[in-house]
Amino acid sequence: MSALTIFTSATTAAAVTVPATRASEDRRIPAVLGSDLEVPVKGGRLVPYANLDYAASAPCLEPVSAAVAAALPAYSSVHRGAGYASQLTTARYEQARHTVRAFVGARPDDSVVFTRNTTDATNLLARSLPEGTTAVVFDTEHHASLLPWADAVRLAPPAFPGEAVRAADEALAGIDGPKLLVVTAASNVTGELWPIAALAHIAHRHGARILVDAAQLVPHRRLNLTALDLDYVVFSGHKLYAPFGTGALIGRTDWLAAAEPYLRGGGAVKAVNDDETEWHADPEARHEAGTPNVLGAIALAAACDALNATGWSALLHEEERLIGRLRAGLAAIEGVHELSLWGPDHPRVGIVSFVVDGFTAREVAEVLSGEYGIGVRDGKFCAHPFVRHLLGAKDGGCDDVTASAVRASIGIGTTEEHVDRLVAALRDLLNRD
Ligand SMILES: Cc1ncc(COP(=O)(O)O)c(C=O)c1O
User: Fold this and answer.
1) Is the four-CA dihedral 168, 169, 174, 176 of positive or negative sign?
2) Is the C-beta atom of 140 inside 6 A of ligand 1?
3) Distance 311 CA to ligand 1 centre (A)
4) How far, in Å, CA of 220 to CA of 218, rounded?
5) Residue 3 has pLDDT above 60, yes or no
6) Which end of the chain is least crowded, N or C, by CB within 10 Å?
7) In angstroms, rounded to a whole number, what is the distance separating the alpha carbons of residues 180 and 328?
8) Is residue 44 part of a domain?
9) Which cofactor does it need (predicted)?
10) Which pLDDT band holds residue 196 (cuts at 50, 70, 90)?
11) Cα–Cα dist 354/409, whole Å
């Protein structure tokens, strides 16, 4: 990446240069912080932690931590400060926006609004919909994409990918007025990839727009919003190795520019007169009121740079090797059952959910942590309707332990030993008297 130079106000005419990162020169898979973490297990021993919970939050990449550390000495306010540190921090913040835009292959006229996370981003879009918009959403969604819509048509989990396209087609055909199809790119429960290009095509045929929840896709696959003809994409930094509290909503500017500001306050406003407030038309200012999370944005951009610099084929190759090993290991254990919507051969990212005969998901997760030093997630993964569907369970409260599963998820820093330890631990558990 080349250095970015900004020229500030005519009075100072100072040039502020953001140093170029080394990311584009480094094609090794970067390290994550915490790979040497040791955790206590039963009996008081310390063992190396096997983090298999990346789908919840991924550890911080070293280049991300380095970028934040490098930005801290000059850390200052953004957008309104005349001081050099403020100008430098503003340049870094806006460069981060530029990097995130390129990372998802956005169109030049798309907006990139920094948010707290994916949930914040979907809620921002929900508040920005033209009046009377109907959302069409599958029951398989994470709650962040399932719940924000005031007016939604909910579609049952489709039996196969083509059925998803057919169901969306039929639902969109029956709706008058503005419509938005909402779909996840990769399931946070099964890891399965959804046919987002075909769904975008169908949405546009009906004059609808499409929002893709890419929270679980972007840590694992390259996404190109323009090539896929998507209208909006949302994701979180903390799942993308940048756990500093920033996410993004990227996409078409018109709805965002016309919407009421998401937060009312400084930064979103152009002028405040006695009886009138003039809001910024530019969505990036209009919807980022208050002091933004600059370090979060810098971290997010550093993660984008680091993943691109490593090369997606190297990342994919390593992930497929490890998730293949894990799934084969699980499949070979009698009493462990992987959850899947579209069958074992459907392509997926590095996420696998399963149930274990004779044990609740909570029991399994506690044994894995307390006896083997393995971190997994158990529960319904903020996707209650979908998990119930996969388990053939009826409606139940959040505490319904029978309708829960265990989820193991991998990423940069996962090793064969982590995967093998999980498989061996489950085998041990099932062989206990
Ligand atoms: C597919 C998907 N969408 C949205 C979210 C919500 O992300 P966040 O908690 O960062 O808002 C998650 C988090 O697990 C997710 O997996």
Assistant:
1) positive
2) no
3) 24
4) 5
5) no
6) C
7) 38
8) no
9) pyridoxal 5'-phosphate
10) very high
11) 11
Q: Domain range holding 388?
A: 311-430
Which of 185, 207, 206, 179 has its CA nearest to residue 197? Answer: 185
User: In 115-244, where does DSSP find H-type helix?
Assistant: 118-128, 143-146, 161-173, 196-205, 225-228
Q: Which amino acid is at 51?
A: N
Which residue's CA is minimally distant from atom 16 of ligand 1? 188
In a domain, 4, yes or no: no
Cβ of 144 below 6 Å from ligand 1: yes
Q: Is 115 in the pocket of ligand 1 (CB under 6 A)?
A: no
188 CA closest ligand 1 atom index: 16
Number of structural domains in the chain: 2
- Final residue in a domain of this structure, among 260, 289, 309: 309
Q: Is 382 a catalytic residue?
A: yes
Check if 119 has its Cβ closer than 6 Å to any atom of ligand 1.
Answer: yes
Q: How far is the CA of 80 from the centre of ligand 1 (A)?
A: 32
pLDDT tens digits for 144-192? 999 999 999 999 999 999 999 999 999 999 999 999 999 999 999 999 9
CB of 246 within 6 A of ligand 1: the answer is: no
* Residue 126, both tokens: 């929900």
Tell whether 366 and 411 lie within a shared domain: yes
Task: Tell me how far CA of residue 287 lies from CA of 13, 52, 283, 417, in angstroms.
Answer: 29, 35, 6, 45
d(Cα 262, Cα 126) in Å, to the nearest integer? Answer: 10
